[in-house]
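Slide 14.
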Amino acid sequence: MESKAKLLGHPLHQMMIVLPLGTLSMAVVADIIAMITGDNFWYQMAFYLIAAGVLTGLAAAIPGAIDYLAIPSGTRAKRIGAMHGVGNLIVVALFALSWFLRYQNENFTPGNLAVTLSLAAVGLSLVTAWLGGELVDRLGVGVDDGANLDAPSSLTNEPIRNSASRAPGARFTH
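Slide 15: predicted structure.
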């Protein structure tokens, strides 16, 4: 099922999720470094990383929702997509709450609850990332119809030919 929200021929959601996953994961790493070293700089870094991750996570949800709405009802993909989307909204909400708790403290130093919320959110994000992989890699959501190893570049206007109509190992001729 081809993505409905694309940029230069590629699904926007799949491109946009990299930033929130990276920033939110690094926020937890920064917290761990701060706990080990006692250097509050890392808590401040985590605070800003969480802010960036929450904002970019919400932005990535928009093309994700557009693609989700295009999935046919009653399919396994629709059920997995719902779990993926709701799970990621919970991840963003947990991080947002962690950010708010940090904002309340001097130098954005988190209390135990703020760190616990971040750790729980990262744990849940591993599950939702797997669900996203299941959607794309197993169920073909966001994959161009007829995608194959010899498909033309997405930057061309050349249509993708269905690989099922070709003999195995055959190459396209132009």
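Speaker note: Confidence is low (pLDDT under 50) at residues 170-174.
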